[in-house]
Amino acid sequence: MSLGELVSCPVEPDFDPLTPEFLADPFAVMHSLPLVDWELVAAKAADRGDDFTSALLAIHDERPDQLTQEEIASILFSVSFAGHETTNYLIGNALRRLLEVPSRWEEVIPTRR
């Protein structure tokens, strides 16, 4: 299941983080993602489904003072980037450990001779 399916986003984000546009202004690209678009929250408020966004909106309906639609949009934004930092650190640390001892790297990536 993709994140788009979890929140019932009609369109998967389609961007490559290595494009010149993204590298020039990553925050503009992130803010243009449909997952954090107010239209998604508004659309789901009008047409509920079996998804995370609708579940958050149900909580909002029961207690609007404890969970606002603005907070729902913020949660969706946070969830859309969850796990990226830990994955980044895992890959970086694995590479660092492999490169600390050349024989480790050689076991994983044999040098062609």
Molecular structure report:
With 113 residues, this protein is mainly α. It has two domains: 79 residues, no CATH class; 31 residues. The chain is 64% helix and 0% strand. It is built from eight helices and no strands. Helix 7 crosses helix 8. The chain is elongated. The termini are far apart. The mean pLDDT is 79.
Using the CA coordinates, give the radius of gyration. Answer: 20 Å
What proportion of the residues is helical, as a percent range? 55-70%
Count of domains: 2
Q: Kindly, what is the distance between the CA atoms of the first and last residues, rounded to a whole number of angstroms?
A: 42 Å
The count of DSSP E runs of length 2 or more, i.e. the number of strands, is 0
Strand coverage percent = under 5%
What is the approximate shape?
A: elongated
Count of DSSP helices?
8
Model regions low in confidence, pLDDT < 50 over at least 5 residues: none
Summarize the structure.
This protein is mainly α and about 110 residues long. Helix content is about 65%, strand content about 0%.
Q: Helices and strands in order, then pairings?
A:
Layout: H1 3-7, H2 20-24, H3 26-31, H4 38-46, H5 52-62, H6 69-80, H7 84-100, H8 102-108
Helix pairs in contact: 7-8
Offer a few descriptive terms.
113 residues, mainly alpha, 2 domains, 0% strand
